[in-house]
What we know:
Chain A: Residues 12-140 form the PX domain. Chain A is mainly alpha-helical.
Amino acid sequence: MEDCLSKKVEITVSEAEKRTGRNAMNMQETYTAYLIETRAVESQNEGQCSPVDSLWRRYSEFELLRNYLLVTFPHIVVPPLPEKRADFVWHKLSADNMDPDFVERRRIGLENFLLRVASHPVLCQDNIFYSFLTQEGGWKEMVNETGFQLKADSRLKALNATFRVKNPDKRFTELKHYSDELQSVISHLLRVRARVADRLYGVYKVHGNYGRVFSEWSAIEKEMGDGLQSAGHHMDVYAASIDDILEEEEHYADQLKEYLFYAEALRAVCRKHELMQYDLEMAAQDLTSKKQQCEELATGTVRTFSLKGMTSKLFGQENPEQREAKIKVLEEQIQEGEEQLKSKNLEGRDFVKSAWADIERFKEQKNHDLKEALISYAVMQISMCKKGIQVWTNAKECFSKM
Amino acid sequence: QDASLVEANSFSPSLPTSPSSMINQYKFEEEPELRDLFITVDDPESHITAIETFITYRVVTKTSRSEFDSSEYEVRRRYQDFLWLKGKLEEAHPTLIIPPLPEKFIMKGMVERFNDEFIETRRKALHKFLNRIADHPTLTFNEDFKIFLTAQAWELSSHKKQGPGLLSRMGQTVRAVASSVRGGVKNRPEMFTEMNDYMETFSQKINVLDKIAHRIYKEEREYFNEMKEYGPIHTLWSASEEDIADSLKGVASCIDKCCKATEKRMAGLSENLLPVIHEYVLYSEILMGVLKRRDLIQGELDSKVDALASKRAEKDVITEEIGKLEDKVECANNALKADWERWKQNMQYDMRAAFTNVAENNLHYYEE
């Protein structure tokens, strides 16, 4: 935490620009590029204006960076990217990736992602991440050269492990349940919030119709005319105010979304643990069966059914030399296996220890961020009510003058 | 004819009709201590006979007027009876603005004719109807009105059977339609043309307002429905959390409070603004009818004047008839003019009150 990149370097994603180019299949495509600016903090403290380094990156490069981090640091809860496609949209919000509001919110989300990585004690020290921020050309090649894609665990393997593992660490099992619950409750909340926003939009906007009718009606009234006309103006103000209110709420929704996606990152760590644990259990099982085989060959007793045993019974026993050779091979394998098991055990314990440390760090961050988000939501609601009070106080005054 | 002459005297053009004095006169009528007729409509009851099912409402009258034999009356009336009363009032005072009755049927979304909401809305409107008549300086002394408030069921039935029958009333309606088909009246005083133009625009605007107000109510109800689901999600979430559980529960309870506030706001709309606007939608139809009836009366005069021009022989007879008709027209015009001013004052007051109420409800909503 003390040596985090974020303390030394100021990072911003300051602009977004539409670009056209040719994709891998030589077809024309339109995409958005984001400008990443970095500036050293220290020289600012000395009162000097330090130079700004900048380069452009597109969303797919961010994705590549994150995938690299996921594979390279499987024990870390890797911060999530803002959503690929607009989800949880309500009526007025566009689902179009090119929509300026969506691009703006994505820009903020990408900046947030970089800041999260830069302030993570482990992740911020990674070279690839540093190059992402500073080296425009050749970065993609650099990442691919690390060969991280080969290290990635296959989905199938992970799934298999999840079902077959016998003794995962109970804390991870609980964590997995928690992340499932978190994901389900936040996505439900976001869905309903979008519907509530839609309805609220409707209520406010219909009041705008009052404005027009009041104005037309005031034309035929002598005494009521002024009151009606000015009241109508306030109804227009009321109807227009909802746009800003709901835009602010979108930022709140984005904060919740980040933790919705964080739940997936949590699950990734749990999956890694299950995989390692399963690996360990398989290795132990393998070792045990080899030891047994060895014993059987040495003593000539068949305690458990084995195909080899059957065939040798049917087709005749091996001669003593063959048996000795087999035993030797098995003993070597057993030795290897025991060493492997020891290192796997160590690996597993190290993983659990470091993963759990990061999980604790994450929990604190999550509690802090969510509490602040809830508070800011409440503040937003209060501000909305204050605006409402102001408009309706004015309207009431106009009505009473009718 | 004599009754309408009496009308003219109470509203002769020499009385000041400036807005401020009219307001004072209106306020005078509204002072509770100076009111001497109090009417309530309540207690709807269902009656099932072999032929039909219908609802009766209890009408309670308390009065200190000497014309009334007693100071308290309690009768039961059904919708048909109210319709009869309105018809009689229109007959007796063709150019006065008789308050609207709730509609016979509501087309939109009616599943059952006698569901509770429908009955309650109707009851409130009937209550308003009778009170508006009671507050009207002329209508309040109408004989049929008195009978309506005081007669027992059988008395009312036998009274209803007297007087001009259905056929004569139909005749009037036919003539009215015929005259309106013939086109606008040629000698219509400017004032009434202005009234006509005003009513056309007013009618348009009030109908649009009716739609807007209903739409707002609908949107608020949908918002309320979504909010009902929104709060509990936070409570559910708090069950998986430790540190932030209290914050989440806090948000949940706030959302629930907002829900209740929304309910109150909706109730305010449906109890105050919506019925008022609806009443004035009906009023705009009534006023168009009143203006047509005035035109009709004037039309009678005009056709007699034309007849005079062509038939020299019966000059005296026609001249006498014209004299009477001229009086009739003058009375009708004055009655309408005065009642119009009164109606406009009421409308202004009602609209101001209704919309101020809406503003207050919204203030309370946001404060909560």
